[in-house]
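PT: before anyone asks, these are the final sequences, not the draft ones from last week. 1528 residues across everything. Please model them as a single complex and drop the result in this thread when it's through.
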Amino acid sequence: MTAAGRPNPNDGIVDRPGAVAVIGAGPHGISALKSLLAHGIPADGFDRADGVGGNWRFGAPTSRVYESTHLISSKPFTQFPDFPMPDSYPDYPSHRHVLTYFERYAQHFGVGERYLFDTEVVDVRAADSTTGSAFGGPRWDVTIRRSGTGPEVTLRYDAVVLANGHNWFPKTPHYPGLESFAGEVLHSADYKSADQLRGRRVLVVGAGNTGCDIAVESAQNADATYHSTRRAYWYNPKYALGRPSDQVADRLLALRLPIRVRRGLYSLMHKAIVGDYTRYGLRHPDHAFYETHPVVNQNLIYYIGHGDIEPRGDVDTFDADGATFADGSRIDVDLVIFATGYLARFDFLADPAVLDIRDGKPHLGLQMASPTHPNLWLSGLIQPDSGQWAIAHWQAETIAEFLSLAAHDPTRAGAIHRDIVQATGHRFSGGADYKDSTRHYYEIAHQDYLLALQEVLATLRGARDPLPRGTTVGLRV
Amino acid sequence: MTAAGRPNPNDGIVDRPGAVAVIGAGPHGISALKSLLAHGIPADGFDRADGVGGNWRFGAPTSRVYESTHLISSKPFTQFPDFPMPDSYPDYPSHRHVLTYFERYAQHFGVGERYLFDTEVVDVRAADSTTGSAFGGPRWDVTIRRSGTGPEVTLRYDAVVLANGHNWFPKTPHYPGLESFAGEVLHSADYKSADQLRGRRVLVVGAGNTGCDIAVESAQNADATYHSTRRAYWYNPKYALGRPSDQVADRLLALRLPIRVRRGLYSLMHKAIVGDYTRYGLRHPDHAFYETHPVVNQNLIYYIGHGDIEPRGDVDTFDADGATFADGSRIDVDLVIFATGYLARFDFLADPAVLDIRDGKPHLGLQMASPTHPNLWLSGLIQPDSGQWAIAHWQAETIAEFLSLAAHDPTRAGAIHRDIVQATGHRFSGGADYKDSTRHYYEIAHQDYLLALQEVLATLRGARDPLPRGTTVGLRV
Amino acid sequence: MRPWEWAFPPRGEHLEVIAAQPATDHGHPPILFVPGLGHGAWCYAEHWLGATAERGYPAYAMSFRGHGGSGGHTRLGRATTRTYLHDLMQVIASLPAPPVLVAHSMAALPARLALARYPAPAGVLLAPVPAGGLRQSLTNQFRRRPAATMRTLVGGTAEFTAVDLFADLDAATAARHLSRLGRESPLAQYELMVPHRIEPIDSPVLVVGAEADRVLAPADLDRAAAELHTSAVMVPGGHDMMLDRSWGEVLTTVLDWIDLHGTAAGAALPGATKLPPVAQALEGRPP
Amino acid sequence: MRPWEWAFPPRGEHLEVIAAQPATDHGHPPILFVPGLGHGAWCYAEHWLGATAERGYPAYAMSFRGHGGSGGHTRLGRATTRTYLHDLMQVIASLPAPPVLVAHSMAALPARLALARYPAPAGVLLAPVPAGGLRQSLTNQFRRRPAATMRTLVGGTAEFTAVDLFADLDAATAARHLSRLGRESPLAQYELMVPHRIEPIDSPVLVVGAEADRVLAPADLDRAAAELHTSAVMVPGGHDMMLDRSWGEVLTTVLDWIDLHGTAAGAALPGATKLPPVAQALEGRPP
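LR: through. Structure below.
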């Protein structure tokens, strides 16, 4: 879907004056669109799927959930703060619950009708027009194709919010001998249900949340399950002290304990619940808590203790019938699943420089703001250590507040934008030193990132609507 | 298979002089046979299945394990103390591991070749013979039928050990309207694999270990899972403090803490791990720890917290499409699984009085000894709060020691037998007050029961082989 | 940040919601009525719900946990303003579209928190307690009934008589209403006396005061209005203005204001009214 | 009861087992050789394993964890007699039939515990330490080499010279053997000095003493034999009788005794020899 050299006839362009294009109807897309509407800014949305939900629309082209997917963070932080999940939902809802939730959100806020579904965005470029955008910067031409093969249409907007997700394009590693492997090779992107595992000998590669989930599912369905991990991770239980463990972790945050104390307490709790990793044939994690993206999986060690998962180290080579590991051991398998993560893709961008894409990764202020254009924003390029959609909401609010201000006070908005862009590269790690930085490029500590958004939001809000002297206002994200 | 009035022609009876018939090739049968052989007593075994393992021979006629069955007690106590499971086995082996273990045990001790497999015992009665048994009491005629429909053969033995198990004959409750239910009704005895659950709406009745296991399996496979329990039980995790939780409980025993302190500490640990039951829509257990048979299930509450199991109370009535509960709520289901336990059956016994069977339950000294005959023993009529096969071993040793003594010193043996029988009805509850006594008729606290066996064994051993004065001998079970 | 909210989410309880739908859909936003201390949805069901539906608004009234027909009566003692906010948000999220919030008395606290985080079309606060904490009202109350006030201070539910709540209601009706009052959480009552963080609200807000209010002192009403950078519109009647004889006048004042401020955008968020959806713009083109 | 065994099971480690099979199966029980302090399966592999197989016995030698070719060297410091019992039982259960146990020196402790719980056909204890704890041997050792003994007391591995272990072996061979000695667990060494519970053993047991033993004092040997209600059979050579020049004579003594006591029942449990299996009794009848 290359964008180079695309003819850009001004004739036939559909003008959407004063409006924002939102690309993607996942949680970041629908919350961005809603915040824009709530701030009085018209917006249109586009998504390849036939409805909202993005990744959570099981079976949709870019959905990566599988039949058994449940949230790995519990409701309170995960949900949108202005639209809580129903109390009837369990602590860790399933992807079916989640999709229903997004559909109700879209319906409640009238967001769904602002979308074109079954619609692919094929090109986004700064418009070659004489008038500038209402929000500063150029206007944007967004070319779409409906229903896969239909004719292309170009629309012109005053701003663009990219919310196309970064967890759908499979990243597949290269291993010597993999091409000679006679069995099936699958990326977790194509894993949908346990039917794919039954009656087979399975090697799952990767210790992320997906890899651990699939290993656990394989333990119960496959004839044999091996789980290869490059390094030793912390496997956090879903429940601790009888509550969802992320709620327990947030208690330590609520008490404003410094990271060392939190780490110590969490370690202690982990020791009491999970114990000594080497008992299970696992290596002991070689790093402190909070230094890698949290893997939340209560049952991996459980199934190792039941003999249904055999943990292994790094794969060295593949042959026709199986794999050999770094420690020299060899296994026979007939299915290899690479749960090795995803790459962020922005193929529709005519000029990758607008996101400062280097090494396949955008470099953005607050992980949201284009370095070149104040009316191009990206929502969702984050990997929080907690639930995601509370952050989606505040990213959306930040974008909407910024564009509101930009429409009324471009100078003030420009200064704030410069500040945001200047801080590009700042790690919102909450004091931790992230290991394995490739893996953790988008990683954020939720409390740290939210405080940064809170500060920007307070500045934006103050600029838009100065409060009477003497009034105390506590904006809380 | 009534035994009344069976002709008993002395002609054609196969005499097995000095030998013991062992009925059943489950863990209690093979360990009894082995202990007899080790004590120099010849013995023959019979089993309906085509090999050893009993309940653990997946697919055999009286096997009640399902594809996913794993032990619910960890290795150290569960295994035979003179034949440990390999270190390569996990903490909680699967039924496949377990069967291999029994097969290796039978091979190692040369027990397998003493069995007739595919053989049903159809009648057991005191022989109408002039000579008494070598072990005291009458000789016993055991009538068998090989390969289901073959001719019957009667063999004559000097003693009989019943090890036919009490967990294979389904106990099915009666509910109003059940006959009008249009869906499928299954007893857990016929539950074999998750295939039976897929795509269905399932109601699992019963909070025993099997009921909880099936509910958890259903959570992952069925379209909807409801779990009905009559009262509120403690659901013990399989792991606590990073170790199998039964090992942790035995630490408290090893420290010789009184039951109140153990109960307190265990409660505390439970609270830290499982927390408040009412959070999950469960009732809080209405009794103390150790007062009911321990349910060991780590994932029931986990799946409730994921919305995949809906806990319910007692079923009130069934109708064509579902069930109504005591609280008035109603659900639609198309499969009901009764995990409501099993009944002990001894249909082959010509005279139930030899086991003092009342209300379908034998009344035996030490839960092993016939009140009428010193050469009729029963192994396995126990429901321990821990692993089973360590106790199977010591029951076997007690029987073999007793018969050894009975062969050499009938007077002494007779006195000991009287003592054993006199204590019939004693509860080996470890100080706990068992609730719901029907359910807990065979329940024992492992430490309490073993101490009783240890005392009897020491007496028997001392009678057989008095040690030199001044030597300290510590017999330990 | 709101880590306490993430770390200690209230347990869910069944929440009573009573609804009255207009005969025809006028595209108006729904109105959610939120009752005050010890009250339940019943106080709005008495007159206002039906009359609001007749004016063309989908009308809903809720009861907080431990109030009216909601669950959680036995665990009421643990409820705080934060718990009520949770309940309010649960009901808001269950509605088909963003509602106008109409909150009475003590419910002004959770309603203001909800308005600060939620893009409601508008908010109406009836005899609202100030976020800064009650002052004059307490003093008045103590002067009038010192014993009852002391009981409240040690955890008893605030005690109301007909004189407190109604300016002009026959004794029988007043007694019937009083008999429906329920217990209040002591924690939530204590929160009425301490200052709360004031979070900024974008939605238009109307503050309504009752001329014959014997519960909320005029000084406290004025402080509540000032916190919202407005001043109170005074209506006839006592504190329970939805039950007092003048309920119709008061409702008219409220709905007239909502007509003006809350339905500018119909039931849609304001941005949606400025440009028709893109699907309309592309109509007639090949799909 | 053995709650400690249930509550604190040792972690599994890879255990070295070296086997030598006889050319033809004579139905003899297997013999499992268990090495002493700091020794491994190698000490039996040198001469005895092959010679035992030649006498018609399946022969096995094992190494405890942290010894010889077994795993767990880095965690050896935690090993106790109970840990070694675990290892011994693991190897026993891996054999095709109940083995005769032949244990040397320190290994007598776990071997006696195994014999007390396991129906081995027979047991042979070579220069066994008494369950009552070493006495004279310690005193002797301290007199001869006080510094080395002190090091042992603070956790060092017992130090042996050629003179300690061998009565008559050329220096080069002795040095080769000595170089293969490994570390011993300090905990297991301490256990040599304290009394252990004596559990009753049903299997026949032979106690063998070496005439020129410079490690185990005659008094301690006699106490060990007395604990087993027998007296020691004396053979030529030093403490490491399976490596000393007279290894052949010693092995002959051991195997002659096993021929007599351990193979009465062949490889089967005794009860099995008294009556052929029921399947044979029913042979010729319809199945």
